[in-house]
Each structure stands twice: as structure tokens, then as C-alpha cells.
Amino acid sequence: MEAAKTDALLSYETVHQSGAVNVELSRYQRLISKFQEAEYNVFFSLNLLNIVQNAVFTLSTLLLCYLDVYQISIDLQDVAMFVTLLTYIAQLQAPLNFFGSFYTQVQNNLVDAERMLELFKEMPTVTDRKDAVELETCNGRISFRDVSFAYNEGQRKALRNVSFEVEPGTSTAIVGESGSGKSTILKLLFRFYDVDDGRIEIDGKDLRDLRLESLRNHIGVVPQEYVPLKRSCPLPS
Q: Which of 146, 212, 213, 216 could staple 198 via S-S, CB 3.0–4.6 A?
């Protein structure tokens, strides 16, 4: 339910442009109904458990009182023991009632833990090689040599046999229509993905032979959308 709401709000332009407002509302209402039904079942089972527990304690207390009163009347037990038994039952009731609400909390936490463990199973697709080296210094000579790349196997390649060089101290503009691979070039340069064919070099070194952190430390990006950063201290005047 939360995922559907977040997707619709973040993609509000696409939703309105596609005339899918009613579709998203119907989808969200359907998910809310399912959530309310599941929540009702949880609360019903929890309250039923509490009712059963209270009924068992009430009946056991009545039975204890009846038996103790009978034993006291025939001098088989004294009043002090009767009070002690009632005190034990009163102290036992609160912890057992707690298990009813605690069980619901455990269930919710297990769901969150399961999702977290699924994230731990996700392995990065791009990692450092065992023999990867640090990029200590960088002059800035970038070379793309017959680079081909597709985001998913079997799909159309975003780049096909792309070759160019950027000399240090120069500016290079990459111009093309939407989907021609401009952003893909930057992603490959950052090594968010590895190329399918060819190679990318910086100062003659293959990116795959360099440590990721040291590579990215030498690259600066000015994004198209401005994102303000919070600073812990003011900039000098």
C-alpha cells in the first residue's frame, strides 16, 4: 500500500499525462481494503486471545476460591495459604496477558527482519578485483575503445562500438537525442556498470583494474538538477 502511494506521488506527472488518476485511486483503494481486512483479522485474533486468557484466569480463580473455602471450612488449609495462592495467580496473570500483545510485535518485527535479510542477500554487480590498484594520481585522459553495453541481456544495446578520447585540459560535448546513450557513458565512466565489450581507460589504465573508491574520488560531477547540500559549518566570506 505504501509502495503504491509513493509511486503514484513521485510519478504524478506521468499519472496525469496518461489519464491514470482513477486507475491509481482504484488501485490504492483496493490495497487499503486488503490492508484493513488483514488488520481486522490481526486485532480480532489478538482480542480473542485476550478474552480466552481472561476467561481461563477468571474460571481458575473462581475454582481456587471454591476449593480453598471448602478446605478452610473443614480445617485442611488456613487463610494465609489462601491469600498466598491468590497473590501468585495475580502476579502470573499480567505476564501471560503480555504475551498476547507481544506476539503481534514479534510478527511485525519478523516481517521487517525478513525484508532486511533479503537485502543482505543482494550482491553488488560491480566489485573490485583482487588485484585492483589505487589511482594515486590522475591527469584526466579518458579513452573509450570499441565500447558496447546493454543494460539487460537480450535488449537493444545502449552503446555499440563507441570510441573517443578526451585529452587532459580539454572540453568534450556529447550531443544526441534522448536514449542515445549520453547518461550511459557517464555511468560507465563511474563504473556503475561494466562494459560488455571493449574497454574504458583513464591515463591508459583500464577502469576494471582500479579500485572503485579511488577512481570516483578523481571524478567531479555537476548534475542537471540542483541538489542543495547541508553544511556543518558556514562557507567563508
A: 146
**Among candidates 172, 176, 179, 181, which has minimal Cα distance to 147?**
181
Cell representation of residue 45? 485474533
Domains and CATH numbers, the chain: 2-121 (no CATH), 142-216 (3.40.50.300)
What's the confidence (pLDDT) of residue 229?
53
Decide: 129 and 191 in contact? Cβ < 8 Å.
no
Residue 101: pLDDT above 80? Answer: no
Residues 6+ apart with CB under 8 A from 227: none
pTM metric for this prediction: 0.54
Query: The sheet that has 197-202: what strands, in order across it?
Result: 159-166, 142-149, 197-202, 205-206
CA pair distance 56, 91, nearest whole angstrom: 15
